[in-house]
Inverse folding.
């Protein structure tokens, strides 16, 4: 029912849930009410007050648990003056529903809820359990949402689909993310006599010069190669002083097969190269955050079921791709769960003032999910 699907997404978009600061309570309430109306068993889990994740289960009998995980938080809308449509009005225009979260990822959430309704209305014979995991905190790396739920085994499905805007392409591999802080320490001196001090900024500039040069020369079939980016830099106290400290924060993206130890080794290699120029260079490396990459074998049963569903709905073969960014799928993959990422919506408009989702694709997304759920939970499937 396309009208019902549009209405669901409008209600979710209008329930503001910007993160930061983390205001998912109203969106969680809306999602819980929708799931409850389907006769699902609904549980709310909070890590921080006012920041719930919703777990809704429908048990069909003995069999596997299929987890559908997507997020109800959204990035901040920013200045509303920059938007063509008010970001939380959920306006439908020119075949699109516009607004913050319409694609990332309330569109996929609405599609999954509609898919569940489709299956229940059609009385499709199913076994096992369908578990909708509609979580908080994904936009700030997910530790208070999916990360917490997986860590304490509140959720541990046998197989999982993560809903993100992939244009209904099937993500079978995802790059990992490492955030690294590098600090150089020098000796302060008067700016008129720099030879009396040691410039921490000069030393840091030499490290930065070698960060890309020390990336491993490796590549993956669907996610490409690793990457590195210096995202922040700070240092010095005053323009007429030799800076005694400088700090950068580095975003290092990894590909399947790379390890945390290899990431740190490549950073240390850039420091070693810099010391060839500045033997007195004093640097400290701190790994602030690490999210591993993952991949699933393209011959896995989960991939086959979702590929078949996408192909039947779209009328053309499904496309298997890689995901350059991070998602909550990594928590499930780390727990040993087969997982793919798939959903309606265009990732290129996510996090922008142009965020919207095509109504036709939203509808196809609901049908893809319904078919995929049915194939995975079919008796003997």
């Amino acid at each position: 029912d396309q009208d019902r699907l549009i209405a669901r997404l409008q209600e979710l978009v209008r329930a503001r849930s910007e993160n930061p600061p983390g205001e998912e309570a109203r969106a969680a309430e809306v999602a819980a009410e929708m799931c409850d109306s389907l006769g699902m068993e609904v549980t709310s889990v909070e890590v921080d007050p006012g920041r719930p994740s919703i777990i809704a289960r429908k048990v069909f009998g003995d069999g596997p648990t299929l987890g559908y995980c997507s997020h109800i938080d959204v990035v901040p809308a920013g200045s509303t003056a920059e938007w063509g449509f008010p970001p939380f009005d959920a306006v439908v225009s020119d075949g699109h529903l516009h607004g913050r979260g319409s694609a990332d990822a309330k569109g996929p959430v609405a599609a999954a809820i509609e898919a569940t309704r489709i299956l229940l209305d059609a009385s499709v014979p199913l076994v096992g359990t369908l578990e909708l995991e509609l979580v908080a905190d994904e936009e700030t790396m997910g530790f208070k949402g999916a990360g917490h739920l997986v860590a304490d085994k509140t959720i541990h499905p046998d197989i999982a689909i993560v809903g993100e805007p992939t244009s209904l392409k099937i993500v079978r591999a995802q790059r990992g993310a490492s955030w690294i802080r590098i600090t150089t320490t020098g000796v302060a001196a008067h700016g008129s006599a720099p030879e009396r001090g040691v410039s921490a900024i000069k030393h840091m500039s030499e490290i930065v010069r070698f960060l890309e040069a020390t990336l491993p020369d490796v590549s993956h079939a669907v996610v490409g190669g690793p990457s590195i980016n210096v995202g922040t830099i700070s240092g010095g106290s005053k323009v007429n002083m030799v800076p005694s400290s400088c700090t950068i924060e580095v975003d290092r993206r990894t590909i399947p097969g790379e390890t945390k130890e290899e990431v740190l080794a490549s950073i240390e290699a850039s420091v070693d190269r810099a010391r060839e120029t500045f033997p007195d260079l004093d640097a400290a490396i701190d790994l602030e955050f690490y999210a591993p990459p993952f991949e699933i074998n393209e011959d896995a049963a989960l991939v086959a079921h979702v590929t078949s569903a996408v192909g039947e709905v779209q009328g053309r073969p499904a496309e298997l791709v890689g995901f350059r960014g991070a998602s909550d799928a990594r928590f499930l993959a780390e727990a040993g769960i087969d997982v793919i990422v798939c959903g309606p919506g265009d990732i290129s408009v996510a996090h922008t003032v142009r965020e919207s989702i095509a109504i036709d694709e939203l509808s196809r997304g609901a049908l893809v999910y319904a078919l995929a759920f049915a194939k995975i939970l079919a008796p003997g499937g």
Observations:
- The chain is about 30% helix and 25% strand.
- The mean pLDDT is 97.
- The radius of gyration is 24 Å.
- The longest strand covers residues 176-185.
